[in-house]
Amino acid sequence: MFNKILIANRGEIACRIIQTAHRMGIRCVAVYSDADANARHVAMADEAFHIGPAPSSESYLKADKIIDIALKSGAQAIHPGYGFLSENTDFAEACEANGIVFIGPPSPAIAAMGSKSAAKAIMEDAGVPLVPGYHGKDQSPELLRAEAEKCGFPLLLKAVAGGGGKGMRVVENMAEFDDALAAAQREAKNAFGNPDMLIERYLTQPRHVEIQVFCDQQGNGIYLAERDCSVQRRHQKVLEEAPAPGLSEDTRKAMGEAAVRAAQAINYVGAGTVEFLYDVDGSFFFMEMNTRLQVEHPVTEMVTGQDLVEWQLKVAWGDPLPLNQAQVKTRGHAIEARIYAEDPEQDFLPATGTLRYLSTPDESANVRVDTGVTEGDEISIHYDPMIAKLIVWDDTREQAVNRMVQALEQYRIAGLKTNIRFLHATVDAQPFREAQLTTNFIASHGDLLFPKSRLDLDKALVLAAGFILEQRKSADPVTADPWSPFGRQNSWRLNWEFAQPLTLQVGDDKHELKILERDDRYQVEVGGSVYQLHAKLNDDYLQAVVNGHRLSLHGNLHNEELVLFYGGDTFKCTVYRETYGFEEMAGEGSLAAPMNGSIVAVQTKVGDRVNAGQSLVIMEAMKMEHAIKAPADGVVTDIFYSEGDQVAEGAELIAIDTGEAE
After folding, report:
1. The Lipoyl-binding domain covers which part of the protein (predicted)?
2. Annotation says 207 is catalytic
3. 202, 285 contact by CB (below 8 A)
């Protein structure tokens, strides 16, 4: 077995690989960019090498530097993780040319599946069912339009190279086709250097079901159950589970055998995933094959009891597969939730910031957290905004769902926006509990997935006041005289009671509270009502009784900004000071950057008349494109940035004179 490997990746997958390698007695070499100098994967590795500036194009995608470090460090093999160079044919070939084992499939297999159009031709020859569409080499707009008409609508435009939802557009009719094609080609070229497209019939109620396959160098191939990844946003997976609910054993077997045929058709070696669209009538169609370890591999590990990274290392060393098909057994049900820095209420816009407070559920045989960050780390614009993967297992799907709901309630983050509340609402929604799964799940159930707060506003303000006052008390020095009224740590005044004011700001609204402090409780007046509050704070854990209602919650107070966590919900407020001077990022006649990023395209010029909602600027951040639209009708008076420029969150991009609009 290898005694030293290099991990050409970062974040949670690098940490995940290191854990298994260390358990197997293998030393690990990490690489890191400027942004990751203090990252968790660097601290976990036996040694680490600086590889370049923060942008991945100048660090983690520098194949020649990674090869040099592997040779310098004496690493016998390179594990690419997922993303970055994991499906790069040239990198796999460079490893081989330098006598380094690439822990992944042979380069010809990567090349065969790297082109979705070529992959479909191979699958057709292997007898794997395909969705109707076009996957030819001729990319002329005229032919693509003709093929679109032949395929029928709705259809899906998909980049021939790459994945992760980039370069994909759903087109409802021919009137939308040209604009959607141009946008998808531009995004594909920027992400993968290849603008070529394929066309597929877009199934309106499909499920996304994928098969984990594994092949060794002796020609053996097996499948390790299936995963359902139907709950997605922007064509990117949000929840994954194994086994897929509601599949018959015959379908499981047929799909698994088709996946193995697909892998063996390209002489595959190692871990791979064959993805299918599963239709309501029970039919399934090949979608693509990912020639690497998948983000969602933990759910397969949880139901099979196997360590797939260990399998990768053994197969790369030359060992045969640890099991044959008859020996593969599954048990129970597992679900994975991807925790992202993003704002679900703003179309899942990626977020940046510092994890100033991070508390995760306790890990056990039923709960697993795969992450590459710790409290205090920054989520930057340079990499994917995934914070962690939360995986749960239990005997039945119902029990696994309940366990995931509980675990999400115990996952608490402050300092930046996350999708935890959205995930909690999604998993707890009745349609998910009933496994009514399609790739349109989020769009179909928006009313359930974006619920109102479970906390009444006035009660939340009372609890916030209790948390703030109790934390202030814990920070104040206590007098040496326990009988002195001046040592009571409350608002005691000689001969009269003093109701101290407290103003809390929630969004744009300010709320005036009056608090009369007793020895054993607070009397809080807010919104014309009076509440009796008993509160006890232990670190971040608040036990409270509000007018006889006992409840417990957690919180984080930082620089007068408070976040309370209760039952999967969050409540945010700020202690208001007149000197704070809150300002809006953008006024009615201007556009501001919603995050740090780079300008991909400016779609207007000075003097143009524009309409509210018209796309004016395309920004790229965290590997995704975002359209910045006109806030109102008007005339463009200034454009402050050009294509290729880097911009900071809140920077004014374009000025519009709304007074001149007709």
Report:
1. 580-657
2. no
3. no
